[in-house]
Request: fold
Amino acid sequence: MCFELDSAPPVPAISGAAISHKELELEAADGNRFAAFAAEPDEPAGAGVVILPDVRGLYRFYEELALRLAERGHRAVAIDYFGRTAGVGKRDEDFEYREHVDQTTPEGIQADVRAAVERLRELGVRSVFTVGFCFGGRNSWLAAASGHDLKGAVGFYGSTVDRDTRGPTTRAAEMTAPILALQAGADRNITAEHNAEFDEALTAAGVEHEVVTYPGAPHSFFDRSQEAFAEASADAWNRMLEFIERHRY
Reply:
């Protein structure tokens, strides 16, 4: 299980930051319309970030994360995955997300990512990154192999292996942007061996990257309700911001 639905990012709000936000409907090249949430600083000075949620799609946690990024100068768009099967309306905690996850395709997800990337570029953003969590972490890395001309791709506890489709390790040689992987050392499904294989594949492909593993941290450690992992969460957040700052020029 990823975050509880009432969780919030373990990131302090910046009091008095001048930002705005709004709910969006974006349209992918295949005609799919999907929900998104945009946040931007009144005086943008940073990069653009497309946020890819966990398996449950767009909900409050990721909207809050977009706000925290905007407070730090970055335009951010968090996207939903289920426009093709669940529409664009708001959903409650009883939403049966699994059946919709099973109907997603890598091509559909990347078409939606492209629409969000293009939205940011229409606003004048030159440096675009993806940041994803769990299911979104995997798809964030795959975005670096999908022709979006990203400056970098960040994933928190994403799966690296082949499942029904080719995973990030297999597609490492196709990646054209730097990679940051922030992995959980106590993750029962994403093992140290998986992380090492991803690291090795990226090295062999000549992709600039860093694979960071937090010993003892569980899947979804980046959650304010898990105070025991506050240090890992803070380090991961700072690494992500430093990665964006380093690669956005």
Summary: The mean pLDDT is 94. The helical segments are 60-71, 83-86, 97-101, 106-122, 135-143, 192-205, 230-247. The first helix runs from residue 60 to 71.
